[in-house]
Write a structure and sequence with these properties.
Blueprint: H1 13-31, H2 38-63
Length: 85
């Protein structure tokens, strides 16, 4: 992509560092598992909650202690790794 973009061919050192910084930040965000869509985040949350529910059920059977689990929702584009704004 950059090879074919004439505007990216003769960047000065400062601009190169700026673009490299943005690229590094993007790679760091992807490395920590930030989902790109709400569908992916929702699937991850549902899978995790099912596992938690099974653990809580097992705890209840073993100890007689029953628990309540409350979950709230949000949007994946709200943190540092989301859209700029």
């Amino acid at each position: 992509m950059v090879v074919n973009d004439l505007d990216m061919q003769n960047l000065d050192g400062e601009m190169k560092q700026k673009y490299l910084g943005k690229l590094k930040e993007s790679h760091e965000c992807k490395a920590v598992g930030v989902q790109s869509t709400n569908t992916a985040a929702s699937h991850d949350a549902q899978t995790t909650l099912k596992k938690i529910y099974k653990e809580l059920q097992a705890l209840a059977y073993c100890t007689g202690i029953y628990t309540c689990l409350f979950v709230t929702c949000g949007h994946v584009v709200t943190g540092k790794c989301g859209a700029e704004g």
